[in-house]
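quick one, two chains, predict together pls
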Amino acid sequence: MSKIELLAPAKDLQKAKIAIMYGADAVYVGGKSFSLRSRASNFTIDDLRELCSFKKDYGARLYVTVNIVFHDDDYEGIREYLKILDDMGVDGIIISSLALLRVAKQVAPGLECHISTQLSSLNSLAVETLKEYGADRVVLAREASMDQIRRIAQRTSVPLEVFIHGGMCSNYSGRCVLSNRMTLRDANRGGCAHSCRWKYHLFAGDEIISNPNCLLSMSSKDLRASAYVEDMIRCGIASLKIEGRMKSEYYIGQVVKTYRQMIDEIYFKGHLTEDRLAYYDEELSKAENRPSDDGFLSGDCDNTKHLYGVNGAGVTHDYVAYVHRYDEARSLCMIEVKNIFKRGDRIEVFGPQVDNEQFVIDQMFDQSWNAVDLANKPTQLLFLRIPFKVHQGDMFRRVSL
Amino acid sequence: MELLATLRKRELLEKVLPFVDGIIVGKFFTSSYHCTLKEIVEINVICKASQKKIYLVLDDFISEDDIDALYRYLEFIKKLEPDGIYFHDFGIVAAAKRYGLSDKLIYDGKTVACNSLDTAFLLSKGIDSVVLSRELTLEEIFRIAKNNPRQIDLQIFGHQRLSYSKRRFLTNYFKEINKEYGYLGNEDLYLVEEQRDYKLPIIENEEGTFIYSDYVFEMINELPELMPYLKRGIVDSLFIEDQTIIDVCRDLRRLSSENKRFIRDNLYHNHPDVYASGFLYQRTNISKDE
């Protein structure tokens, strides 16, 4: 059996490279057209070409989302686009339009066609139907329990992809146009306003029956399926998917690295102990900005799996710098400031080859070698000495004392 | 165009039947009256005796646990010899094949049947007809219908479904605020967002929670020109008074370009409600950056 794939999202080229460097077997990205998450930076053809070249060096795979719910006008240029993707070496596309199965097989036969979670596939019969239609892989709906996933995998030969981490639609994916009604933004064409996360009064006829101190919200906690990774490996799932094409490089790096190590440990040791799972959960929590749980994997979602007092996502400011260069001879590191930090702060460094090593910032300099006490200018490049080896692509986070 | 009405409650059947070509019912029907098997048999007998068509609905997502129940239900359906089966879970395509019901399938994805190519693809796979999504503009509907003439169904009246969740939003909310309330199947509950005044009907049943448009969708002005291209037009009775549904069905049956203004005025006058043309003239492709 081939090793399970760890599939990560990326908003732009930099994040896609980070995902691969931090251990993703595959990344999925959106092009400038035909893709949900319209606010994600999304990739130009040149970006995709560069990423194709980059991923080859790591033996990684690249899937491009072509997953909007198409209206007639949206198909313009799709044939040419798919052919370009195929020619440049993209491995597959993620689609919700069944007609694209036929189009892709005609004009871009090298592309695998993965059926998006937008079609909410929840049973083995649906998976088999989609296979008959030409699907090469099916992304299961996030409403399936682990037990159901196991049985679906037993009953079908189609490679299955399952979400393990990140945000969740509170409605069946693709079956919600609340955003269309509330804001005229098409939820299924990249414009979702997350109206489900807003707060609502509940009326019975003309009488308000909601609690004014706790209005109704459909907002769900994010998904964290760390406890199920071992089960998913055992039942033959092809790919474990992390959600979050809008997420930061810090989030991508931390989450990908944690699941990479977890998966490798399960394959190496055959089992993950409770202590090790707790360790990985702790690592995942460093990247989280919304509460999380195991969604439908353990069964139904009750009130504890909803968020009633939180509107949107909080932002973590723990990620403070990105490493651009390291001069080992002088122990000198060039970093890019991401969030505010200062001399004396305790910093934890993590990266593909560095596991949470800590140091205290002693001195920092700007590019003119002026001493800097407070790093508070995002994107500013600073130099500092660091007592252990780091690498391009490593990240700094502030440690709360 | 066949004129169909969903059955909000059993008592509506005899009242509405004279004015429609067929009825839509279902045990699994999540957007309308939840019939027992016995009631479905009875409704089937009445429809057939009246030479009216009967369509069944299976518009839930089927979990792996429910496959055996699905097979049993299809076995039951087959004996009824229905005129069609509305579905949106592709598992039903495989299951229907087993019972020789493939040619009865009508795809109703609610929000994902938005273009000519996907419609043509499904028709090429033996699907009888496709119900177009509710968020399409009139221009888009015409285009798809002309590309696939008389193979398109369309909701032509009623509240439009905006969302479908497996989560039990009402159960969970009442648990969260420690309140007991009779909400299962209750058609009198509404959501109103903090900053907006839309009154969105919300209903929960065993399959999950459904939210509908605040307005009653109607397209009386537009329908006469569109009818030649449609296979079926659906009047959804959910949340709407019986008499309104009866009058609407009676009037739509005799709708023409000549009387459409009169019929529309009658509706607005005799059954005042919040009527709207939905997305017919309202494109919803604003991006987040706009």
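Residues 5-170+217-305 of chain A form a domain with the TIM Barrel fold (CATH 3.20.20.70).
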